Structures are given as C-alpha cells and as structure tokens.
Fold each of these.
Amino acid sequence: MTRPPVLAATRNPHKLHEIRDLLRDVRVSVLGLEDLGIPADPEEEELEPFDTFARNALSKARYFHGRSGIPTLADDSGLCVDALDGEPGVCTRRFAPSDWADRWGRDEANNRWLIARLERVEDERRGARYHCAIAVADDLEHAVFEGRVEGSIVRAPRGRGGFGYDPLFVPAGEGMTFAELPGGVKRALSHRAVALTRAGGWLRDHVESPRPTAHRVEGPRPAP
C-alpha cells in the first residue's frame, strides 16, 4: 500500500534525515522541500517572528502547507541556557554576530559565541535544555507538540556527530555530548524525538488512516 505523503518543511538536511528516521514507524512518506521542487523564497526568512517555538513552528507549517497542498510538518527548536536567561532560545540559529558567522560558518560561530558568553560561568551554573516544537497542518486542522531534554554546556566542543550545538550539550544522566553519543542513542534521547513521538499519533489519525472529523484547533495560535 502506498504511503501517503507528508512534507517536512526544513531546508536543513541533517534535520530532514533525523525527522525521517524518527517517523520510520509511521506509515507515511516523509518528503523534503527539494523532493517537491519547492524553491527557496526570501519570504521564508520572515516565518519565525514570534517569541515562542510553538508559534514559529506553526507559522512555518501553515506557510509550507499552503505552498505544497499536502499535510505538512514543521519544527522550531533551540537551546535555552540558564546562565543566559534562556538565550539563545528562538534566536538559536542566529545567535552569533554576523561577522562571526561569515568567518566560521553558522554552526561553528554559534558554538564559539556560546563558549565565549559562558567563559566565566561556573560548572554548576551551566544548566541548559534543548526545546523542540513540532507543528502539523492540513486543510482542516493543526496541532503543536513539544519536547524538551535537560542537560548542561561543556567548556569546549567534543565529538564529531550531530549538528548545531550538539558538541557542547551533555544530556542529563550522560557523560558524553550529543556529538559524541552514537546517532541512534542521541536521536532516542533528543527533544525532537519526544516531540515527534507525540506528533506521530496525530499523523496516524489524520494522514496514515484519515477519518472524517469535525473542525477543531489544537495548540497555540500565531499572533495576528
């Protein structure tokens, strides 16, 4: 039986691979934007204006559902550091100054900037968490599912796996960073795994085995 399509609205190939892997037990075909030939548009840079992961994820899911016409899943996730009052938070991808990003590339610049910001912070105050919001949208409904993983920030990058801040983040109860842990272990522990496990139930009900339902809205609404 052909698996119904779902669009994973991300242009990050690492994130797309992780989403596909985490949804492998849901009988849907997870497509990327390139699979559907959806070209990048400058207006995509304006899809995350909100101050919560949930609102930003929902904004992206609705936008790309409108462009694709198929059920769409979108993610907004980031790192929240206690000693920085929750920063970088929703600004996780653009945390480092632009000149740092031009010099080292976005991921390395963000890691270097985080290390610099925490240089004088004691080990016991380096608590942090990864937060993920997964929004799903089709013609009738939308929903948002969230996941978090607690941990701490180390003083220097460790490991070559993962992406983003993974070389600096040690999940609670582990001795290795996300970049040092085997890929399968990292994905099983991750904030994205928690959120996608919850979203998988929605996909099973609405995409894998759709059934007529009355219109309802779940999750937060974006601001007008």
Amino acid sequence: MSSEGPARKKLPLLKLAVAGAIVLAVAALFLSGGNLQALIGQGRSSLDRVMTVIRDAGPLAFFTAMALLPAVGAPMFAFSLPVGSLFGDRMGMTTVVLCSLLATAVNMILTYALARRVLRPPLEWLIARLGYKLPQMEAGDASDLVIILRVTPGVPFCVQNYLLGLAEAPFGKFLLWSSVLSLPQMAGFVLFGDALLHGRGGMLLMAALLLVAAMALAHFLRRHYTRNKTPA
C-alpha cells in the first residue's frame, strides 16, 4: 500500500489542529477579558521603542551591523525593510539605498572570503583524511553556478555566499553576477519597506514594480538555465 495516502491525510489534520489552536487562543483571550486592540497598541509601542533605540545608535552602527550580522544568519530583510523609515529623513533615500547596497556588497565579499579562505581549507583536510577530494569547479561553469544559485528560491542569502565561496567560484564572476541579480532586489526592498511604513502609494508602486521586474528576471534565468544547462 502506498504511503502517499497517510501522508496526505496527516497534512489536513495538522492544518486543522493549528487552526483550532489559533481559534482557542483568540477565544481564551476574549473570555479572559483581554483587549485585542490594547495588545496591538502595546506591540506597536514596543516596536516604536526598538526603532528609536536603533535610530539613536546612528546610521554607522546600523549599516555596520547590516554588513556583518547576516554573515552569522541574521536575515537581510530585517535590515532592508526598516532602514528607509529609520534614516531616510536624516540622510535622504538615495543615500540610504546606496549605503544599503554597499553594506550588502561588503556582506557578500565577507561571507565569500570566510568560506573560501577560512572554511574550505579545514574542510579539504577533513575530506582528504576520509580518503576523498573536494570537487573543483571548472572555470566555464562558474557563471552558470552563480546565476543558478542566485535565482533559486528558498536558499538564504548568506548560504548562497558560503556555498559559492566553498565551491571556489572565481571572485570576479561571483561579484559581478551577485551584484547584477541581488542588488536591484535589495534596492526594491529598501524602497518598499519605507513606502509601506510611511503609506507612500507612489513609491510603494515603484518599489513593487522593481521587485516584480527582479523576480521576473530571476524566473526567466532559472527556466533558461534549468532547461539548457546542467548544474555543476
């Protein structure tokens, strides 16, 4: 008997259990006299306090953190979405976008260098002790691998950088294609976050169009390379 049947049955049951838990939690909140509006207000107040602390720390501290912390797993969108609201009035949105792109580029270079110069040598030694050899990328495959990895959905940004560094992708091709494919998306997220937090319809539309164009390009490249290329 195929195992697909039980697997398919478990998924709806899991969804029903999660939905039921949410309903029970909301019901318990109202029955206990909890005020949902007050709870939302407290959440906004806490967010405002956090934003104030970050704003007071200054743009240098923020963009330094943006360049370094994603190397240890911090999500890049946690920096790109609020940065316009934090420093747009003080620095101007053009400067904010340029600083965000610079921080992103520094992060790409840092994680690539860590993977290639710090992590790969001990990994090569360990694999050699086990009787194997770490694969070496062919020069002609470098651009293909960078493009395929950058346009593959679901792979975290820092993981992409580390994988390309471990694979010893040539630095020039790594930086070129990473900049072409990643930096426009970063600019779109910065503009989108600022427009969303400030309710600016025109900028929100422009940022959305930029993100749609970047995603369309990624989708086109993904289809092209998965159809015509064999990944390394």
Amino acid sequence: MTATLRRVLVRPPQRGAADNWQSYGWHAKPDPLELAREHEQLCELLDGAGAEVIAARSTDAGNLDAIYVYDPVLVCDRGAILLRPGKEARRREPDTLESDLSAAGVPTLTRLAEPATAEGGDTVWLDARTLLVGHGYRTNAAGINALRAALPDVEVIPVDLPHFRGPEAVLHLMSLISPLDRNLAAVYLPLMPVRMVELLRERDISLVEVPDDEFESMGPNVLALGPRFALALEGNAVTRRRMEHAGVEVIVYKGDEISRKGDGGPTCLTRPLLRNEQERAE
C-alpha cells in the first residue's frame, strides 16, 4: 500500500447524484459544480505525482457514494475481488465497476455472495502476504472468511472495530490507520483495536499519531503515493506537521465537497491498481 502508485481508478461524480445526498447519509448537499471541480483537481494531483489516472466509464445512476471507489473491490496481484458492501445502498457498485476493471486489464478473481459483507475501507495490506480486515458493521465474519478463502496464500488477520456511533455511521478500519511506508503509519490510537496496535509494534512500524480534534476531519485518512510521499485532505495541520517530521512529503487537496460532506478522504476516492518499488521521479 506504500509502493509508488502507477495506476489508479477513480469515478467522477455522476450527474444528478448530488440530489440524493440524504439517502446516502451525507452531512449536506454538495454543490455539483464544486464537486466536479474538486474531483478534477484531485485527478490532476494524482497525475502530477506520476500515476496514470483511469476514470470509470460505467454508470451507477443516482449513487453519490459511487465516487468512493476504494470500497467496492479489493485488488491483489491476481486480480480483483468484487466485494459486497455492508451499506445496502452500495450493493450494486462491485458489479458496476467490473467492466471498468476489465477495461483496465484487471480480471475478476472472485466475488462475495450473501451472507458475506465486506468493504474495501476495512482492508489494510501490511505487506504482500498480510491483510488486516476490520470486523465491524460494514464487514462481517462471513466476509472475512470469504476473503480468507479467496486469498489462500495470504494471512488474513481480523481485528474488531469499536461500536463508536453505531451501524449508521461509517467507521472503517482505514478510518483509523493509513500506511505511509513499510515501517510507518498514520493512526488514531484511541479507537485502535489493541491487537492491531500490538501487531504494528511487533513489526516495528512507527506511528504518526493523529490528535483528537483532527480525527473527525479525516486526519488518519491519507493516501500513500509512494514511500513517505502522501496525499492528504487540506487542513489537519498538526497531523501534517507530524508526518513531515517523520520524513513524509505531503501534498494536499481541497475536499470540502467530495470529502468533508461525505466522510470520504483520499484513500476512499481512489482504487490503486498498480504499484511498484521504483523510485518516483523528482
């Protein structure tokens, strides 16, 4: 999750979807023009960082959450696992994205079926053979077992997520942690599962701690563009200083519409398709 990002899938906001903001649990109705403008600026930053940006062409009419392309699928070295979101309004997204993934050269490895639920935001690769999966209201035990079956060569480690504000609020595993390098991660410790904290310490992964007042503004939600090179939501000044103190170069994007109103940061807005270990161009 921290090697140099080379190809990434995004989904531009769809016409008319902003009208359905209440149905998808957004905090406020986004301005359609600003929503599109902010997404275009995000894509420009990704392109400027050296990633090939692939825009989804399939449609998911009326689905405002569809811009958060990280959640419907999990990508591994053999292809894509089409997940089954715990949020019912997002259940058609995996099948919708399948054509976009195929066009990008990413085959479908398998798909989850009822009663399994799992969302990408609950998955964190610690390395190529270790996958953490948050067990919460969006990802259930059947979903974790399905991922374990789909990835026989991977150690799938479940970690329990807190109740926090209940099933209606989004709290993914990646609401609490974002890898920044093989041995560095941004985290919000107060809600972290103890087992996960112990595991990170066992692996000598240093932690950049997000302060309490920057958790709600998605301080822990940071996209690694490469080792110690990250894209973050504008604001969260303390978290940014702490990342920079740890040697991370941070670039920021404006996300008043695409992020703050829908609780989706840069990891949510992107689905990395290819990373490699080459040094990024300066």
Amino acid sequence: MVLSRGRGRKYLVLLVTLVFMLVAQPLLGPLHILAGAFFDGLIAAIATYAFFIVFEERWQRWVALAVMLPVFASNVVLYAVPVHVHRPSAVVYHSLLIVFLAFAVAVILKGIFGKRVIHGDDVLGAFTGYMLAAVAWANLYALTYLLVPDAFSVKPELVGRLDQWHGRRALFDYLSFATLTGLGYTDIAPAGPPVYSLTWLEVMFGQFYMAVVVAQFVGLKLAQAIRGDHPEAK
C-alpha cells in the first residue's frame, strides 16, 4: 500500500526537486565551488530519479543509460581540468543532456497519450515534461553560446556570468522559460542566427505542447465521465 501511494506521487517528487534546483541554483550555485558541486549533484540525482520513474521499458532504460553516464562523466571532468579547457567537456555535457531530456519528454508524452484514465500524478507528469523541455532548450542555448557567442545579446553587467558554469546555465534557463512562456526578453535576448530560429521553434513547441496535452486531458476526462470511471479506485 505504501509503495503504491509512493508511485502515485512519483512526478510530484521530481517536479518539486526540479523547481527547487531551478530557483536555488542561480542564487547559490555561483557563490562557492561546493555550492556549485551540490547543484551538479542535484542535477545528477534528478536525472537518476527520472531514469527510474520515466523510462519503464528495458530498451528505454538502455538508451537513457547510454546517454546519462557520459553526461555525468563530462560534468565530473569540469572539476578536474583547468577552466581554460572546460569548453570540450561543456559541449559534450550540454549535447548529451539535451538528448537525455528530450528523450524523457518524449516518453512522458507517449505515456500520457497511452492513458485511458487520468490521475492527478499524470497532470503533474505533463507539467514536469513541460519544465524538462524548457531545461533541454536552455542547454541547447548554452551549447549554441559555446559555439556562436555573438548570437546572444546580454546586458553588460551580466556578461561576467557567462564565464561562470552555474551563472551561464542560470541565464539560459531564464532565457528558455521566458521564450517558452512568451514572457519576453530583457537581460538576455537572441541577437543573430541560429538563435533566432531556436527561439521561434521553442515558442511553437510550447504552444503545441500545451494545446495537445490539454486537449488530451479534456478528452480523457470526458471519456471517463461517459464510462463512469473513478481514477481514485484504480
């Protein structure tokens, strides 16, 4: 019974941890190397937890593991090499984390579209997938910055943060969520290709995600009402 209740709240744990990481990392991550290491470890913990609750089929876990382990390794390398040679490891880290997160979002959506009955945790799962997609896009922006730094416009007082591992990630998390939600740009904005294309693609993805997922939930709730299903009993 306890295990069943725990599985029923699996996405709640992932969502709360993810929100905590996104809120606290910009505040504490750049302050000290130990704080930065803590948040890198937290990201690894989030990925590990997602590995067990999102990827349920054996082939999914093999694919996720093949991507996840090099992500962890490249992150550790960043603490073992001088700052001036961080770039290759950072490129590997961002590239593979994008693949891992995109795969997780795809599996979450596949699970949602395979449902016949909607539970509360399924709604949290959909929202978690939305946030994971934003983080994936943030890593795509960070990767783009490493390759084409002139494609971004950043306020002069924030330029120094782009040289800090956690400061840079926090800025691109902000850019991604601002783009995905249509909030608009202030401190950091696209200033050239390929970021122009990446931002409008993210906007289109965000609108598509919300429209399709909400339509799926509404359709399932109507079907449940017609059939007389009660999610609490399942």
